[in-house]
Specification:
By secondary structure, the protein is an alpha+beta fold. Helices cover 31% and strands 27% of the residues. It has one domain. The protein is built from four helices and eight strands; from the N terminus they run E-H-E-E-E-E-H-E-H-E-E-H. Strand 4 and strand 5 form a beta hairpin.
Length: 197
């Protein structure tokens, strides 16, 4: 699978236990990011509010290259970055870039005073390949992608214990829950990943 041109890769980093976020406040934050060009590597298109959809995509900052979102899907609040196009490098390098973008957005959200102290942990994350043709949610896909995902995670978390578990289901592309044996704050994680978006 790693020889394929995977463009649609997503990762979600979960908020710390019990945290929530108000959609209206988040919409305002994303609009400010657009006005201030807070993500200079991205071409923003719009902010979309799907917070009324139960366990849906939440509030999204849609960009040409991909989209940032904060949602309550997967049973918990989290920040997600999903790439759509323009990714370069190996699959492991693309996954590293996706994680860096999600962590950058998370760190920026943590610094926003009107989000009630929202913060994210690095111990739990959910990865997804949004392409059921290239990476169906099967054990074979998991086996094929595992080396690239492990390489990307090793670059971020060093020799920490890492557990990978495929999430069963046939309605999505390959979906993997990752648990890290130790927690890094987002600043330290971004230091290891080489900065921000």
């Amino acid at each position: 699978m790693s020889s394929l041109d995977l463009q649609r890769i997503a990762v979600k980093c979960f908020a710390r236990d019990g945290q929530a976020v108000e959609a209206d406040a988040l919409i305002g934050v994303f609009h400010r990011w657009i006005q201030r060009n807070s993500l200079p590597s991205f071409i923003p298109i719009d902010v979309a509010d799907y917070s009324h959809v139960r366990q849906g995509p939440g509030v999204m900052l849609i960009c040409h290259e991909g989209q940032f979102s904060v949602d309550e899907a997967d049973g918990a609040v989290g920040v997600q970055y999903a790439s759509k196009r323009g990714a370069t490098g190996s699959t492991a390098e693309r996954m590293t870039a996706v994680l860096r973008h999600a962590a950058t957005a998370g760190r920026m959200l943590e610094s926003e005073g009107d989000l009630g102290g929202l913060s994210f942990e690095c111990r739990r994350m959910r990865w997804r390949v949004d392409d059921r043709l290239a990476a169906p949610n099967t054990d074979a896909s998991m086996q094929a992608l595992r080396p690239d995902l492990e390489q990307a995670l090793a670059g971020a978390f060093g020799d920490a214990d890492i557990s990978l578990e495929r999430v069963e289901g046939d309605r999505t592309g390959l979906t993997v829950d990752v648990t890290i044996g130790s927690d890094l704050d987002l600043n330290r994680l971004l230091g290891r990943l080489g900065g921000g978006s």
